[in-house]
Amino acid sequence: MNSQDSQTLTAEEAVAVELQKALPFTHVDNENEALIYYDEAASNKLSRDYWRVARSFKFYVGERSDNRWVLIPAGYLSDGATVPRFLWWLIPPWGRHGHAAIVHDYLCDYARLYENGEEKFVPRKQADKIFNEAMKVTKVNPIIRHLMYGAVRLWARFGNKLGRTDLPQFRARKIALEEAWRTSPPDLDYSSFQPV
Hints:
Blueprint: H1 3-7, H2 11-21, E1 23-24, H3 25-28, E2 36-38, H4 40-46, E3 51-53, E4 57-60, E5 68-72, E6 77-78, H5 98-110, E7 112-115, E8 118-121, H6 124-137, H7 142-157, H8 167-183
Parallel strand pairs: 1-4
Antiparallel strand pairs: 2-3, 3-6, 4-5, 5-7, 7-8
């Protein structure tokens, strides 16, 4: 499908196309399949490191037969696990938990998943539980998983009260960069990507 075709699709048709192209979550961890890459241009514009999802993927919540999933669209930007730099020796931004962090970032940014093909709102507490589940799927060390889950729950309870006043403008810039990429994606040579 070319870019002209995608501009004539309704929002529902565009989601259906993305779902057909999406890889299942378990495929993400295959080292031969690099699905994200460091996006230097977006990182410079957003003043922090961001990686871009190069191919859409789905994470099934619960059992696949439950028919609930999170669709991470190509073009989405994630900073990985948001861990203070002084703790990177223990929990780096990327590792076995990387794709679970992308799912969590997406849920925190957009607060939606699909159930039986219909879009549903996801409250923050549920997003954090899905993050924990995704870390189980990717076999994150249980101690690290509990630390990370505890950290996101603490942030949800207390961190948002720190008063970052530029958050709406920052999110708008980030969303604009994601949309621009989806409108006109670059030709990517996946053979040069390194697994994250």
